[in-house]
Amino acid sequence: MPSVKIVSRVNPSEDPEKVSTAILNVFPDAVIETEGGYARGESRSLDNFGLMIRRQKMLDTTRAVLLRGMSGDRTRFLLNKQVAFAGKISFCDRGQMLGPIEVTVTDEGIEALIDRTAPGTVDGVEVRD
């Protein structure tokens, strides 16, 4: 079972509840605590994330991001906080004005987890071994 750690800065101009909502839109089972200018959460599932990337038809992009962020038994990626609040996925870099949602996924079989979450495609159709 994967461990998904989620962190986002809560800027003074932001409503902490909205930052929590952005996280929960992507990881609905996350338990979130907001303190010290940060919202931190932990989830045990990438199921909703996987459904969202399929709905948005972004398997290949997601796969590339997850593989690029892989190191050892984990992968890291950044999500656009405002887009997540709207219930969608958009990957970003650290240069976001309000800051990103930082996600770290740890699993002993991280490559297999990436294969299940964001399998490769051929002509837009999932390819599974």
Describe the secondary structure blueprint for this structure.
Layout: E1 3-9, H1 16-26, E2 31-35, E3 38-43, H2 47-55, H3 59-68, E4 70-71, E5 74-80, H4 81-85, E6 100-106, H5 110-117, E7 121-122, E8 125-126
Helix pairs in contact: 3-5
How would you characterize this protein structure?
InterPro entries: PAB1135-like, Ribosomal_uL5_dom_sf. By secondary structure, the chain is α+β, with helices and mostly antiparallel strands. It has one domain: Ribosomal protein L5 (50s Ribosomal Protein L5, Chain: A, 2-Layer Sandwich), CATH 3.30.1440.10. The chain contains 5 helices and 8 strands; from the N terminus they run E-H-E-E-H-H-E-E-H-E-H-E-E. The strands form 2 sheets. Strands 2-3-1-6-5-4 form a 6-stranded antiparallel beta sheet. The chain is globular, with a radius of gyration of 14 Å. The two termini are 21 Å apart. The model has no long low-confidence stretch (mean pLDDT 94).
